[in-house]
Amino acid sequence: MHTLPQQLANGLFLGSTYGLIAIGYTMVYGIVQLINFAHGEIFMTGGFGALTVYLMLPHGTSMWLALPLMLIGGALVAVLIALGAERFAYRPLRTAPRLAPLIAAIGLSLALQQAVHNLYPNATSPRVFPQIASGPWHVAGISFQSGDLFTLLAAPLCMVILAVFVQKSRTGRAMQATAQDPDTAQLMGIDTNRIIAIAFGVGALFAAVAAICYGLRYGQVSFDMGFEAGLRAFTAAVLGGIGNVYGAMLGGLVLGLTEAMATAYIANVPGLHQLGGQAWSSVWAFVLLILVLLLRPQGILGERVADRA
Amino acid sequence: MTTALLEVTDLRVAYGKIEAVKGISFTVEDGSVTTLIGTNGAGKTTTLRTLSGLLKPTAGTVTFDGRPLAAIPAHKIVSLGLAHSPEGRHIFPRMTIEENLLLGAFLRRDTPGITEDIERAYTLFPILGERRKQAAGTLSGGEQQMLAMGRALMSRPKLLMLDEPSMGLSPIMMQKIMATIVDLKAAGTTILLVEQNAQAALSLSDRGYVMQTGAIVLTGTGQELLRDESVRKSYLGED
C-alpha cells in the first residue's frame, strides 16, 4: 500500500476534495473579503442532504441512479443554507467592522454543527454513507474505490465549468468586476448583492460535491466533519493564493499530496521514525501552511497586495 | 427653450453626523455642459456619488429625465441613461480594455450596437484600440481616463457625469480630454463635469456652479464665472 504511485493517487483524491471546498472560501473572500468560517459546515450539511435523499429512496436503489439524486439534494441543502447565511447573517453586517462578520461566521459554524448534532436522527455519532458496490479496482499498482473515481471525474469537471463560467459568462464577468471594484461595478449596472449571493451559492454547490466525495471515500458523514475538512480547505485556499479560484484547486492538490507523502515517507527519514503515520497528517499540513506564509505570503498564484490597491 | 434633464432640489448628504452636502439646488439643461467647481472637500464628488445612487441623501429630491431618483438602487440608475465616470478613474485593473468597455455596456443586449460603440470608442481614443487585449491596470493615467470615459459612454447615456477627468494628467492629455468633452457635447450628450481645473472647465461650460464647504455659493454661465472676481481669485490663482 505504501508504494509511491498509490501515495500520489491518495494525495490526488484527498487534494481534489480539499480543492473543491477551498473554491468556496476563495470565491467569497475574493468578492467580500470575508473568511466564511461556516463554509466547512456548509460542506457538512451538503453531506447530510445527500444522505437524506438516499434514505428517502426505496431500499436497494442502484447507486448509479441514487448518486445524481443525492448530488441534487446535497447541493440544494448546502446552497439554501449558504444563501440564507449570506442574506440574514453577512449582508446586514457588510458595512460593519470586519471582525463582526467573522465572528458571525464562527457563530454560524458552531450553530450548524450543533443543529445537525441535535436535530438530525442519530447524528450524535457518524452516520454510514452509502457506497458504490463495484470496485475496488487495481490499475498499475494503484488500488482505488469507486468513490475515488467519482472524485477524479467530478473535481476536474467542476473546475472546467467554473473557469468557463467566470471567464466567459456575463455573470462571471460581473463577478470579476465586483471583486475588483464593487462601487464601480454598480455604476456599470451590476447588482452586486446578487453577484455576492451567487458567489456564496457556487461555493456551496462545490462544497456539496466535495461532501459526496468525502462520504464515498470515508464511508460516513458526521456533524463535525466540516471542522477539520474546512480548516484544511481554508489552508489550501491560502496556499494557492486566496481570492484566486485556480489557486484554490492547486492549493488543494499541493496540500493533499504533501499530506499523503509526509504520512507515508517521513518515518523513513533517520531519526524521524516516530513522526510517521496518519496521526501526524495535520501537523504536516500546517507546517506547509506556515512555510508558505513565511516564504510566499500571497500564496502560490496570489498577487501581491500592492497590485490590488 | 431648453428643458432640465437633471433637477436637484435642496439635496443634503451626510457621512454619519458630518454633513458633506448642505442643501444644494442646481439644474442641468438638456444638451448642455454644466460644471461644478470648488476646492477639495467642497462636496462635488459626494454630489455625483449621490446622483448615481452610491450614497443616499438625507434630504432633498433629484429628478432625472422626469423621474425621481430617490428610491432607485445604484445598479438600476445607469439603465435610465445616467452614466458616471468616477473620480480616480476606477477602471477594472485586471481586466482587458475591451472587457472594461464591455462592462460599460453591461445592461445592453444589442450585440451589434455594442460592437459598433466599442469601435467608436477606439476611433475616439485610438490608443485604446491598439491595446484592446491589454490589462487596463497597465495603462498610463491619461489612458485610464480615456478608458473610464469610453466605458461610461458605452451605456449610451443621456447624461454623462465626469468626476475630475483631468486629474493627474499632462497638459497635452488634458487638452485631449477637454476637446473630447466638446466633441461629445456637439454629438448631443449632456455633460455634468466636476473639475478642479476651473479655467479649462468653465471655458467650455454653458453653466457653472461654485461649491464651497457643501453649499453652492455662486452660479452663472461659464463666461460669467470666468470674469467673476471672486472666482478668479479663489479658483484661477489670480491675485
From TrEMBL, chain A:
InterPro entries: ABC_BtuC-like (IPR037294), ABC_transp_permease (IPR001851), BCAA_transport_permease (IPR052157). One of its GO terms (molecular function) is L-phenylalanine transmembrane transporter activity. It is a multi-pass membrane protein. Its main location: membrane. It holds the Pfam family BPD_transp_2. It comes from the Bacteria. The chain crosses the membrane at residues 12-32, 39-57, 63-84, 96-116, 149-166, 195-217, 229-246, 278-295. The keyword Cell membrane applies. CDD domains: TM_PBP1_LivH_like (cd06582). It is found in: Cell membrane. GO terms for cellular component: plasma membrane. The keyword Lyase does not apply. Keywords: Amino-acid transport, Cell inner membrane, Cell membrane, Membrane, Transmembrane, Transmembrane helix, Transport. GO terms for biological process: D-alanine transmembrane transport; L-alanine transport; L-isoleucine import across plasma membrane. Belongs to the binding-protein-dependent transport system permease family. LivHM subfamily. This is Branched-chain amino acid ABC transporter permease. It comes from Streptomyces tateyamensis.
Automatic annotation (TrEMBL), chain B:
It comes from the Bacteria. SUPFAM superfamilies: P-loop containing nucleoside triphosphate hydrolases (SSF52540). It holds the Pfam family ABC_tran. GO terms for biological process: L-amino acid transport. One of its GO terms (molecular function) is ATP binding. Gene3D superfamilies: P-loop containing nucleotide triphosphate hydrolases (3.40.50.300). Residues 6-238 form the ABC transporter domain. Keywords: Amino-acid transport, ATP-binding, Nucleotide-binding, Transport. Belongs to the ABC transporter superfamily. This is ABC transporter ATP-binding protein. It comes from Streptomyces tateyamensis.
